[in-house]
Amino acid sequence: MKSDPRNATINEELAEFSLFLKCIFYNLWIMKPKTLVMSIVGRSNSGKTTLMVRLVKELKLRGYKLATIKHSHHHIELDTKGKDSWLYSQAGADAVVVSSQSMMGIIRWTPGEFLLSDIVSTYLQDMDIVLVEGYKAESIPKIEVFRTEVSTELVCQGDKNLIAVIGDKNPKLGIPFFHIDDKASSIVNFILSDLKI
Fold it and tell me: What pLDDT does 193 receive?
């Protein structure tokens, strides 16, 4: 029985298409630059939020696409009583999305706390940088804000992921130290070089 020459052509086309799909997968998933996630940690009233705001402004000036995540141990209320979205939640909706031309918000009840990695991979994978306030137990690069008027001990002393300290006094840990009044540009230069961005 003779083989049909059309089968050879079909097989070649399938092989080419398979290679094409592998190239797309490689470029979209393997070669996709990974989103940098870094945490700013410290005790209450140490200046974490102030530092985060300074870093966000400096990174935006440099053209980075970034997000922030604030970790809270308390219940948070993201909706306004009486608004339509609040009424949907009160009626039992598990998730409410509010969307406009320039912004979208998702309010979603969860059975437990989302993992940081899930938040980033689900909602923020298109960001260059995600700055996190908190999540001190996560294995991600951390900068601690340390002020002696708030505490004499660091929150993350001994943590191998602690890459720098920013504060009013150098705790001499053998890692970079920046004074709390140093320019944000110096701190951002360090972050970008240390994390090789």
Answer: 86
**Cα–Cα distance between 103 and 99 in angstroms, integer?**
6
Clarify whether residues 27 and 61 are in a common domain: no
133 falls within a domain: yes
User: Do 61 and 11 belong to one domain?
Assistant: no
User: DSSP 3-state assignment of 185?
Assistant: helix
CA torsion sign, 191 to 193 to 196 to 197?
A: positive
Overall pTM > 0.90: no
Whether residue 9 is found in the same domain as residue 53: no
pLDDT, tens digit, 9 for 90 and up, residues 143-175 = 999 999 999 999 998 999 999 999 999 999 999
- Cα gap 20→118, rounded to integer Å: 30
DSSP E strand stretches across the chain: 36-42, 66-70, 95-99, 104-108, 129-133, 142-146, 162-167, 177-179
Please give the average per-residue pLDDT across 89-93, as a whole number: 88
